Amino acid sequence: MENRKELPIGVFDSGVGGLTVAREIMRQMPNEKIVYFGDTARVPYGSKSQSTILRYSRQIVRFLLEQNVKAIAVACNTASAYALPEIEKDCPVPTIGVILPGARTAASITRNGKIGVIGTSATIGSGIYADYLKEIMPSAQVLGRACPLFCPLVEEGLWEDPVTEEIARRYLADLLDQEIDTLILGCTHYPLIRRTIGKVVGPDVQLVNPAYETAQELGQLLRDMDLQAEEAPALGAAESQYRFFVSDMAEKFRQFANSIIKYGILSAKTVNIEEY
Ligand code: DGL
Question: Using CA positions, which residue lies closest to atom 2 of ligand 1?
Fold first, then answer.
């Protein structure tokens, strides 16, 4: 009989950003296998409507279920904001998004209750971080700011560039004026420019990286459901342990993935996701 514990975890994003979540899962749960899907043909999700984001996310969930995953991590803030509540209603495997783990951490570490959230226009427009934070901490003051230029800057590799720093100064000025003491990096690309953001906000503002918290909560979920992988993968098995699929531009994805993940990613396969 199939041992469900040894099945892979499905991780998906609109493109490359979710690799920051996959990387945390690899670090924190080295025994787990991962099937990653990046929707590189239809990225960005951050400027699309809820119905489109939901349709895309449902197709990806169908693809991942076909890969026989034991759980699904929605490693995209925009998809977590707009699609996760619908997906989890009828998904046969446990699901987790990136928003609730980030909100919980921010509420637990803020000292003055003023929490900034940055993300795509869709994520900030959804108000979902504020909704969760108000539930967890009714006295919280939540200040959101969409930062649409950050994703292209990250994808251009300008992680510690003066241009990125200048854009960050402009985006974050209002939040700093309002004296936030905690800032949620509410988009999967942003941990990659964490250093630049940290330089702009200064040491008194604590940065929350939901990728880290999501991996922690996923680990707990797997333990609670007795689904945690027990067998350590064979030496040199990274290629079969981690499998990557995209909807377009496989080679560009592979190169980007290799710049942030330390295991050599030899291939990414292209899938026609519209067929799902
Ligand atoms: N991965 C998306 C997110 O975390 C950002 C990129 C996009 O707009 O699709 O919101």
Answer: 76
Taking the model in full, what pTM does it have? 0.94
Is there a catalytic annotation at residue 91? Answer: no
Active site residue 76: yes
* CATH code: domain of residue 122: 3.40.50.1860
Domain final residue pick, 210, 232, 247: 210
- Yes or no: say if 196 and 166 are a contact pair by the CB < 8 Å rule: no
Q: What is the pLDDT of residues 164-190, one digit of tens each?
A: 999 999 999 999 999 999 999 999 999
CA of 162 to the centre of ligand 1 (A): 23
What distance in Å separates the CA atoms of residue 144 and residue 126, rounded to the nearest whole number?
A: 10
**Active-site option among 76, 91, 147, 151:** 76
Give the closest residue to 120 by CA, choosing from 149, 93, 142.
Answer: 149
Predicted confidence (pLDDT) per residue in 42-80, tens digit:
999 998 999 999 999 999 999 999 999 999 999 999 999
